[in-house]
Batch of 2 targets.
Target 1
Amino acid sequence: MRLKVSHRTEYSYDEPIRYGLQRLRLWPASGPAQTMLTWALHIEGAREEVRFLDQFGNDTRLLSIDGDPHTISVVAEGEIETNDTAGVSGPHRGFAPLWLFEHQTPLTAPGTAIRDLAASVGDGGDLQRLHGLMALIQQRIAYVTGTTDSRTTAEEALVKGTGVCQDHSHVFAASARLLGFPARYVSGYLMMNDRVDQVATHAWAEAYVSDLGWVGFDAANGMSPDERYVRVAVGRDYREAMPIAGILIGHAQERLAVHITVEQ
Amino acid sequence: MVAFDEMLPAEAGLRRPYEAYDGWLKNQDPARLTEKMRDAERVFRKTGITFAVYGEQEASERLIPFDIVPRIISGNEWRRLTQGIEQRVQALNAFLDDIYHRQEILRAGRVPRELIATNEAFLPEMIGVRPPAGVYTHIIGVDIVRIAENEFYVLEDNARTPSGVSYMLENRETMLQLFPELFQRIKVHPVENYPQLLRQSLAAVKPNGVNGAPTIAVLTPGSFNSAYFEHAFLADQMGVQLVEGQDLRVVDGHVAMRTTEGYKQIDVLYRRVDDAYLDPLTFKPDSALGVPGIMDVYRAGNITIANAPGTGIADDKAIYSYMPEIIEFYTGRKPILGNIPTWRCSEANSLKYVQEHLAELVVKEVHGSGGYGMLVGPAATRKEREEFSKKLAARPSNYIAQPTLSLSTCPILTEKGLAPRHVDLRPFVLVSDRIRIVPGGLTRVALKEGSLVVNSSQGGGTKDTWVLDD
């Protein structure tokens, strides 16, 4: 499936910004489930300082504020050819060792709720257990925006019982790790069938299954990724894979507007 | 247990390296020497060397006591030491390169994976980074102890941001001022060129793509840091800028410092800020000491950070116990310098042994430094040992234990004349396209009679360290 993606992020400030940085992980790579055909970043109010591959192989760019802008906008857009691999995104690659993904991060650190959840996953083969885990999470956490934020931990979201895809992915990764699977967080895009304008970037989790490699689980939607998914960055949690992370010097108030379209 | 005295061992009599010095000392008027001791203190006060001591409520700045009797090492002894140190430093850098890339040593099962995986000093952000010339530890301070004529052991590899080199330099400067005639009579290798060697060494590992002489700067956490004097001193001696995080920005793909003529690109940053505080965009978000985005510039290959972030994984006290395996794995040879037998309290059998033998052992925190939070069993009271035992039981993996070594002694000048005190040695090693070790180092001395704790934060002093040109 050929997907056309446009992802616009705009920050506006109530006073000019004198110094600030934004780190972008907005450049998708080709892999087993997708081929990047065209991709471009259009940046206003900031400029690219450096680009590099981070420890997980994500194409990462550091921007600095250019001039004294009131707004910074970043548009990432292009075309990706995707194919349905039944959620399998292939063998582990890169220097980041597989064991790194067995370890929890501050955002996935389990408490009793996550431990209980992981313990309630039934017996069976690896895939069966992971699918069981995904179904449990979908039941336990209702998709409700505005109830959690980027600092909400997996444990907090599970206790709360509401959240967004980021929370579902954290809970999945935290629980899968407890069950002994290396797990990671994937940020990207999902084309919802009924619309062109998407609510937000998407996120899902992957667990490493012997013989198969990394397998994706989208607990927010209760399914493994198919050809409607575009992967952009991976990490052990949201903080390591987040599309845009910034730091501002000063006291300006920031307003954020995001507009994403994904269409065939 | 009688300690080996480096000047006058119990049975053998005066040792050779001290003969010339002893000949001079015998002809000195004791009153004049006492006077020189006071002069030394004045020199130190004048140069402003102070040392902040953590955990004390009162005046946290004080002088580190200096003793005027030099610690003397023969040329032959030094050559053997340097061979051992070079081997160790090569192994440490090979280990770091491996740990942040293919991790062959873990695959081979020579170091347990868990030791790396659960270690806070392991920085995932360093995975895949290969700094210029493959150098991770540009400056290492190797702590060495001696227990007999020919028995040297490495106590610690300080591979993060070792301090103390300014004392080595000031100690020599002071001795040259107090006893110029001594240096006429006895040929001692100079250490004064350390700042120049440091500068050359840092310049030699500039980023690929920097043409001509690189711009070097020293990054300090600021004037409240215990080693601020040293940061300022080294920057001054090297003739480079001393900067704080707030002076730095990312400009044109590089880290740059604010100057009167605008921002100037920095190519090599000798940082004395710990990893966790180095980049608030990458590590602790609330750190005001670091430079946001410096890790991005680093990964892009546009700056050399000395020492590289993440080197703490090589000098962790739990890793230390594997150094013989690490050295053999990367150099293919047995270690030249010994490692002190170490019990890892994370292992049940070791913990049991340590708990049962607390009165004989030295127990240290795995991630600790500076002599804080350690127990010296033989010197501790029963109550102190009992309290420590509880801490140990609560967090066994936080501790390692070692036998209480009878560190060698060296005489210090006291009101009653010469008296032996325990010493250790920290030579400073510069790593770039080659390994340079300044002949000498910092000799730390436990001033209290019988004490084995040489740390300046725990009442230790220092001595000038002579390597003879013989």
Target 2
Amino acid sequence: MTIEPGLYHLLFISTALFFIGVYGFLTRRNLITMLMSIELILNSVNINFIAFNKYLWANRLDGVMFTVFVIAIAAAEAAVAIAIIINLYRSHQSIDVQKAEELKY
Amino acid sequence: MNGATVIFYLLAAMTIGCGVMAVSTRQIFRAAISLLFSLVGIAGIYFWMDYQFIAAVQIVVYVGGIVVLIIFSIFLTQQSGEKMPVQKMGRKLFSLLAVFCGFALTIVQIFQHTFAKTTAAPTGVTVRNIGEELISLDKNGYALPFEVVSILLLAALIGCIVIAMRTPAEAPKEEVEAKRKEEIKVILPKEEEILIVQEETGGIQ
């Protein structure tokens, strides 16, 4: 591993971001912060796609296309998730996942 | 160590540092701002890799769209100055352990693997090339996913409206009560008439 940034450095960043997102998803109990962790995970995947496209398959554009589609799906997911969160807040006066437990029993 | 290397390490430190802040701080608004800077750092990494189109999309959709949406929902759903409750120590420790094990495993796997590189001449990542690939009908074209994503976005749009719409049960109570009283008024006189008729005839024998 050299000091010159390359594929391995980018993979390190994306792995670190992915596990930061997983840590947030496991420890947070607030729906908005859990959504933020999911955004971090999706972004780490995007970095992976772009890095592989640039350093391994520079003659193709598949990594770029996948990144564009992941971003579009992430936007749709965030919009629906926030509509659900606001509706949950309207009915429970809280967005804590511990308070929404009707389906638990 | 030239300028590009220094910029790369600065962007990487900004991305990871702000990401850690976003999942660890107890003030939710501060977490949202940290997420914003982390996403800006990722856009900077895309710029550094010469993928200007993806970097622009990242800034427009994530920083301009999703983070603003998250900040709106924070304002709508809670007091932004309030701190979130402290999590249990056991849960934190367990999550940290799980995350550390997963991270170590993945990193060891990545650094032991040597990736095979293609020898073909690279194509330019211009907006023109991306657009042509997006609507091409070839074997490697992305016309079908493009259409499917457009339907997904339409479904998300309609879904958001339906979720955010008030259901009939949530309609103002006074209106419902008034309607029910009117219905009862309509029904009641008939019942009285029936009773009177029954009394006059001495009921059903």
